[in-house]
Structure formats: structure tokens, C-alpha cells
Design goal:
The structure is a homodimer of 144-residue chains.
Chain A lengths: L12 H23 L4 H9 L6 H8 L3 H13 L3 E5 L7 E5 L1 H13 L2 H7 L3 H15 L5
Antiparallel strand pairs in A: 1-2
Helix pairs in contact in A: 2-4, 3-4
The structure holds a DNA duplex (30 and 30 nucleotides).
Chain lengths: 144, 144
DNA sequence: CTTCTATGCTTTAGTCAATCAAGTATCTAC
DNA sequence: GTAGATACTTGATTGACTAAAGCATAGAAG
């Protein structure tokens, strides 16, 4: 469903614009993932693996339980998009690595997730800079 | 997990900023919903009901299957946040209406979903306008 | 070296969102 | 009044997610 969806009641123009933007972004992400046989969560995890990651490290950045990651990785591994290696120093830990197919699949996904790219392409360089500054400033109130 | 999460590889500053913003927005929505005993999808549906809606009408705007809406409404109804009335002219159809508790609950949710509000509050009025214009322009390439 | 505790991950069980296919009831048109 | 469309529900299946319990290994304390 790509929630959040639906502008809230007494919103300013800016709030509605943010809302619409986020909604469009989420939907585009979902669609692009699906086009390449990935769920959004799978695409998201696969995208992080530009280097080997531990399970709890992934759970950490993605803000979810380690057991959730286990399941997602199991599914990715079953499709040979990812490999689970035992940590070199600590044999309890795992190093999650993208396989070549995983690399390729993610590259394809990223290629068709045109949203951010085409959003940027609507703006001049100066506007891009402006937007970056405004978004960062808007974010400055929130944690993380 | 609030996907999308994780900046893509060769991204511009603006793309990363968009990404971070969307991610923060989604997470804040999720957290606020949970604080009031709602799932994001439930909050999202509840938020639409400022007037009576039909099931397929909801499915339409939210871009999902009608049977998905059925389930969400059933859960909301079980908690008395929503009522399902039979359509006055067409007895196949349903009019979904928020109960007073539903109204109250959503108002609480909206109150604690401070993200958009506090994001806006970081900006001057002129900046708010600028951001609105830029987001709309960025969106202008995408469908819907 | 042994035990105790903490850590890193997996397993299991449960909820919810989401989709698809099939079903029921009602409406509309002929 | 029957045929077909429409509005929704039901049932089955998949995946994301959480919480609790479990297992193996690591590190520390004795």
C-alpha cells in the first residue's frame, strides 16, 4: 500500500507537498523492486551490501529485529543473491556478502528505480542545491 | 523496517537528501502509529475517513486490492474505530465511517506525528514556499 | 581449565499487510 | 426474469515484522 498515504487534515501546502513526495517515492521504490522480482525489504537489504555486513549490524541500521534480517537473508540466499559466511574472528557472527548475481540484480533494480534520478533531473543545478539544503534543514529537528 | 532504506551507489547530494528525508518521514509515521496502537496501514486508512468512503474507493486511492481493505477495516471495526454501513442506494456497497473513538484516535495519532509539522517549523515562510515549489517540480516527471 | 555471562544469530509462533482466485449478493439492462 | 456486471467478502498463500526461547561461541573470573 506504500503507506503513509493520505494528507492529514489541517496541513500547510508544504506539508502536503512533502507528503505527496514521500508517497510517490515509496510507490516508485515498490514498483521498481517488484519489476526485478524483489520485495522492497529485499531490495533494501541487498542495497546495503556494498561490503560485507554482520546480521546485527544490518538489523541496527534498518531499525528492526535480527530475526527479521535472518528471514530476509534466508530468502535472498535461497535465490543465490547473497552468501552467508562465518565471521573470520568470531565464529558466532556472519558476514553477508552479495553474490555476483546479487550485484547484477541490484544494479538492475537501481537502474529502474528512476524516481530520485528523474526527480533531480527536473531541477537545475542551483535548484538541486537549494532542495538539498532545505531538506537537510527540515530534517534538522528530527533525531538520527 | 520503513523501507526504502540505504542510499544508492552513485547518487548526487540531492538524491541522498531526498532519500534521507523519505526514510525519516516513513519511520516517524510508523513510530507515531505504533504509539497509538495502530499499524501504519490502519492509520493510513483511518486518516482517509474524513467522510464516508466505499471499500473499492479506498482500494482505488490506496492502490491496493479491495480484499486488503476488507481485512484492515475488519480489524478497525473490531476495535470500534470504524463502522461499516450498507450503502443507502446500492446495498452491495458499504459506507465506511469513523466512530467517535476513531476520530479521537486519529486525532491523537496526527498530533504525535510531528514529523511534517516540525520539519516545516524549521523553515521560514519563504523557505516553505521554495520547498513546496521544488518538490512539486521534482515530482512533475512522475505519473499521478 | 572450568564455569558464568554476554553476544550473535536462528528458530518458532504469532500478527498483520498484501495479493490472487473464487464466491455471494445485489444491481442493471435487455 | 434472466444475464452479466459490480461491490464486497472469503480463503489460501507469501512475506515482513516482533517477541520469546534456544544454541553456539566468546570473553572474563575464579
Amino acid at each position: 500500500m506504500a503507506v503513509p498515504s493520505g494528507p492529514v487534515a489541517a496541513s500547510t501546502e508544504a506539508e502536503v507537498a512533502m507528503f505527496d513526495f514521500v508517497d510517490a517515492y515509496d510507490r516508485a521504490y515498490e514498483v521498481a523492486a517488484e519489476q526485478h522480482g524483489l520485495t522492497p525489504a529485499q531490495a533494501c537489504v541487498l542495497g546495503r551490501l556494498t561490503r560485507p555486513w554482520g546480521m546485527s549490524e544490518l538489523a541496527g541500521v534498518l531499525g528492526c529485529d535480527a530475526s527479521n534480517i535472518t528471514q530476509i537473508i534466508v530468502r535472498l540466499e535461497a535465490r543465490d543473491l547473497v552468501r552467508r559466511e562465518t565471521g573470520p574472528h568470531d565464529r558466532r557472527s556472519r558476514q553477508i556478502v552479495r553474490t555476483p548475481e546479487g550485484e547484477a540484480r541490484y544494479a538492475e533494480f537501481e537502474g529502474s528505480f528512476a524516481f530520485a534520478r528523474s526527480a533531480v533531473s527536473q531541477l537545475s543545478l542551483a535548484e538541486q542545491e537549494q532542495l538539498t539544503v532545505l531538506l537537510r534543514k527540515a530534517l534538522s529537528s528530527s533525531p538520527r
